[in-house]
Amino acid sequence: MNYDGDDHHLLVLAAALGKIKFDQPRGAKKLSWEAVGVLADDNLHRAYGLCYYYTVVGWNQNKIQAVVDNGDADQFCKGGTGPNNFFVTTNSGTSTALSGFVSFLQNNAFASRRAAILPRGFGFGWQGDHHVLQVACNLDADETFITNQKYKKADTDAAPLATPNGRAGMGFVSWNTSAIFKDNDDRRNYMFAELVSGMAGNDVDVLQPPFRILPIAGPGFFGACLGESGPAGIKTEQVTIDNIPYTYAIPMLTGWEQWYGCDDHHVKEIGMWIDDIHYDVPPNSGVGTLRYRLSSVLVDSSNNTHGYRHKVSVLELKPLPQPIVVEPPISER
Question: Per residue in 272-327, pLDDT tens?
């Protein structure tokens, strides 16, 4: 997203995909969704641009065992009872800009199956607009497990399990998400929101590399300058992941972090995305190679450069048959 014209403070930063529908009227098949984005300072009437990248995953139920839960398809984040695939909350009770949240989905079709949480959107918001030093988000560690604690669900806290024991399976999937939204101050109150889909099935798995986010300090009296080399603007890199033992592999940007090197600044353009995706499986190899391009931008009108990190989780579908190794006869060994 980018402001139209000059750079400005940030009040709200958000992007999400919702209202996902798959219709088959009279035999035809139609997939539809809506994309929303917010880039705003205290002047909520500033013009801005939005560009987003998406991946569509389709499969034959007779060949791949998988089901998906996109939540309510008629409106964004409706709250109340029903299939709420989102939460919105604040960073209450924290002593730094780092916040952590746990959430869950429950779908009877997920029972006794492997599951993956698919990112569909996020939102950050301050009570008043400010400069930006660091923005980060990390969706991590989803498991088909639930326990007796409070989880973030819609706009409240929910405790789906009344007993003191944990429970595996039963259609529950839980995960944790961490977030950072800060300027030079160590901490400010902010809102955070997340929107996801769930996918489960005997042919579904997810590869999740370790990734963590931590707040960086503003310059202050003794603060260090985390200057970044290179020109300002969009930075790109090519990434390769080898030895994936699945027929299909889809990269998902589940963790990311961006920061200005020396001080907090206005924002003119901000974003991170993956594209140019390729997955190749050599015949009879039993493994494939995933390649994608990662791009990041965080810049103001003064062309201050930025640093970034990212995490890609890989949605893996249908295990590959392993190659048969034929041993030579004993007489030839």
Answer: 999 999 999 999 999 999 999 999 999 999 999 999 999 999 999 999 998 776 67
β 86-90/204-207 pair status:
unpaired
Reported as a pLDDT band with limits 50, 70 and 90, residue 206 is very high
What span, in angstroms and rounded, lies between the C-alpha atoms of 67 and 200? 5
Helix (H, G, I), strand (E, B) or coil at 191: strand
Tell me the chain's radius of gyration from C-alpha atoms.
Answer: 22
Concatenated DSSP letters of 142-168: EESEE-SS-EEEBTEEE----SSS-EE
**Which DSSP state fits 331?**
G
Whether the CA torsion 243, 245, 246, 251 is positive or negative: it is negative
CB 222 within 8 A of CB 277: no
Of 44, 11, 268, 12, the C-alpha closest to 129 is 11
Q: How many CB atoms lie within 10 A of CB 275?
A: 12
In tens, the pLDDT along 157-197 reads 999 888 778 888 889 999 999 999 999 999 999 999 999 99
Beta strands in 60-114 (DSSP E): 67-69, 86-90, 98-106
Q: What gap in Å lies between CA 285 and CA 80, rounded to an integer?
A: 49
Q: What stretch of H or E contains 178?
A: strand 172-182
Distance, CA of 110 to CA of 172 (rounded, Å): 7
**What residues have CB less than 8 Å from 328, skipping those under 6 apart?**
none
- DSSP helix/strand/coil, 40: strand
Contact 287, 281 (CB under 8 A): yes
Average pLDDT, the chain: 91
Which DSSP string do the residues of 274-307 spell out, in sequence order? EEEEEEE--TT-S-EEEEEEEEEEEE-TT---EE
What number of CA atoms fall less than 13 Å from residue 154's CA on the CB side?
A: 14
Q: Are the beta carbons of 42 and 129 closer than 8 angstroms?
A: yes
